[in-house]
Amino acid sequence: MFQDEPGAGGRRKLNAKMLGKLLVIAVLMFGFGYALVPIYKQICELTGVNILTPKDISVKEISNSQIDRSREVTIEFDANTQGPWRFRPTVASMKVHPGEMTQVVYEVVNKQAYKMDAQAIPSYAPQQASSYFKKMECFCFKQQTLGPNEARQMPVVFYIDPALPKDVKTITLSYTFFEVGGKSQAAVAEGQGKS
């Protein structure tokens, strides 16, 4: 009635078959995780959420902008982190004239004893201000690699489009700085495991 357990040769075949299935599942999971980043970027572009500011502002556009000295806009700076570092603007706020080229500096310190890759994502309040906040240079345009315990000052060069609605008197520029990939930490852990 009861079937005997397979012999040693049968168990090896079953184990090899199970190992093959597990390897296929592991590869598929890795591929899915790897594909999430470009998928996320495409979804963000389609929905208009968390879009990095494009770098396609031309010099002609800058030279044609006029500084509106008749009004000032208060720009407030904010920093949030998702990771083991210190990240902050060097000033809390500043007043600027629309059309005036301005620079602010953010400081970041990697508090780990290993290299980390990170990315900053900007957000604006009120949200309508995002289309009037023109960045010429920004650390958010690309990933940043910070060495062990490295401190860095990163500039943002921007101007406010003079077409900003008159009722907007204050704009908050907020960055969230987060680790990308986690590869560096995994490499350190692997290196310590071999010691």
Automatic annotation (TrEMBL):
Gene3D superfamilies: Ctag/Cox11 (2.60.370.10). InterPro entries: CtaG/Cox11_dom_sf (IPR023471), Cyt_c_oxidase_assmbl_CtaG (IPR007533). It is a single-pass type II membrane protein. Keywords: Copper, Membrane, Signal-anchor, Transmembrane, Transmembrane helix. The chain crosses the membrane at residues 21-40. Pfam families: CtaG_Cox11. It is found in: Cell inner membrane. SUPFAM superfamilies: Ctag/Cox11 (SSF110111). Exerts its effect at some terminal stage of cytochrome c oxidase synthesis, probably by being involved in the insertion of the copper B into subunit I. Belongs to the COX11/CtaG family. NCBIfam families: PRK05089.1. This is Cytochrome c oxidase assembly protein CtaG.
